[in-house]
Amino acid sequence: MSLSYPHESPFLHGTNLPAVGDYNRSVVLDTIRKAGQISRVEVAHLTGLTAQTVTNMVRKLIDGGLVQEQGTVTVGRGKPRTAIRLNPEGRFALGIHLEPARTTVILINLAGEIIDRDLPILPDDSAGAIAVLARSAALLLERQGIPREKVGGIGIAIPGPLDAGRGTVLDPPNLSGWRNVRLAHDLESITGLPVFMEKDVTAACHGQTWAGNGQETGQDYIFMYMGLGIAFGTVRQGQVYRGRTGNEGEMGHIVVDTSGPACWCGQKGCVAVTCDPRSLVKQAEKEGLFPGPTGVNDPQAFNDSADLPLLDGAFRSLCRRAHDGEDACRDLLVEGAGRIGRAVTILTDLWDMDTVVFGGPYWHLMEDIYLDRVGQVLRRRSVLRQVHDFKVLSTTLGGDLAAIGAASAILDNDLTPGSSPGMSGKDHPAL
Sorted alphabetically, which PANTHER family does this protein's record hold (predicted)? Predict the structure, then answer.
């Protein structure tokens, strides 16, 4: 006899009590979103709601412009039934990914599709930068003719640490001029839209769960964020875990090479000084793989962002040469992938996960080398290799993942029952 566990289903269950109509409406909408196209009968079956309750909720969602009838579906041996699906134009959200190398502002629809994008150049001072971000958001809405009442708000993905409750950026590495900045509050004051700020890796997890539904990740996985810094996120039972303060995912001081360089934390061979782009460029420089000095600072120079253009160029060159067949460059990246594999092994064993998804701004540069190597390390080193196999995947959402996630966190907060923390400032109007 086989047992089925409730958490294996991505669909939420509602209640037929009359006092929780808004919750049931969210449950029905979430079920329709995840299914893509579905009949009312199937919604009732998946949610545990009565047919009459589902009919009432669907009518309200259609009246609100969030759901539309389109086509038919066949359920069992009965006649075809009217299909309902999400109305992508029913709600929109803006997403900002503020990263050291590039800032991206996007506009997404309810299906998580990017419909417009801007790449603003930010000044060094935070006040000026926030004003530019506000103008960029307004530009996208104006360009697409989106009325304000259809916009859920603005989501921001930014490197930690941050104080999510106060919407304050504390002191992120590689982002100079952003110490103790009330980013969410100030941007909301200018735009008049609700603003939600999230750590970049957590936003990436939101993007993967909201817009990456077609990917076979299941409901439980580790997400590895590969940017100028390296972090991880976790998704359990389809819900993004944020940690107590919203700063979950710091893994820089996991030791992956006991003979590696000293870290400013006092250990040797941490992820922070052996695995990120700065560490790999410095290792390549020491091995004579560049014709001269790169100008890239040592990994121990914590929070130094003065050399970021040089670092970006040097790391891209290193990856390109590895892909073009330079064995020494490829060997260096394979070695780096092995260290990441050891870190991933620790994380999957701790969380009892069998699926790892990689993404982030620099992931596409190393994907072809890292995917196989990380999988090899997992299958050789994991304690749980005797229990299950592992899936190591690349996100299907590309380099815009964190921006998509920041925007989808707004939609998730607005439309999904009990999923996300509240936004900065005033509550968003009810549906």
Answer: BIFUNCTIONAL UDP-N-ACETYLGLUCOSAMINE 2-EPIMERASE_N-ACETYLMANNOSAMINE KINASE, ROK (REPRESSOR, ORF, KINASE) FAMILY
Decide if 243 contacts 223 (C-beta within 8 A).
no
**Maximum separation of any 2 CA atoms in the chain, in Å:** 73
User: How many Å apart are CA 167 and CA 337, to the nearest integer?
Assistant: 35
Q: Could you read off the pLDDT of 181-211 as tens digits, one per residue?
A: 999 999 999 999 999 999 999 999 988 887 7
pLDDT in tens, 77-126: 667 888 898 898 999 999 999 988 789 999 999 888 899 999 999 988 89
* Whether the domain at 91-209+401-415 and the domain at 219-394 fall into the same CATH topology: yes
Indicate the helix (H) or strand (E) that contains 327: helix 327-351
Helix (H, G, I), strand (E, B) or coil at 229: coil
**Whose structure tokens read 């790169």?**
294
CA distance 184 to 156: 8
Question: For residue 68, what are the contacts with CB-CB under 8 A and spacing of at least 6?
Answer: 62, 84, 85, 86, 87
Cα separation, 420 vs 406, in Å, equals 12
CA–CA dist 332, 104 (Å, integer): 30
Six-digit token pair at 320?
């390109």
Distance CA 182, CA 179 (A): 9
CA dist., res. 43 & res. 55, Å (int): 10
Question: CATH number for the 6-86 domain, one of 1.20.1530.20, 1.10.10.10, 3.40.50.1370, 3.30.70.100?
Answer: 1.10.10.10
Domain 219-394 is found in CATH 3.10.580.10? no
The neighbouring-strand residues paired with 232 are 224
Burial of 295 (0-12, 13-18, 19+ CB in 10 A): middle
Q: Which amino acid is at 265?
A: C
Q: Which CATH architecture has domain 91-209+401-415?
A: 2-Layer Sandwich (3.30)
Contacts of 324 (CB under 8 A, 6+ apart): none
304, 318 in Cβ contact below 8 A? Answer: no
pTM of this structure: 0.83
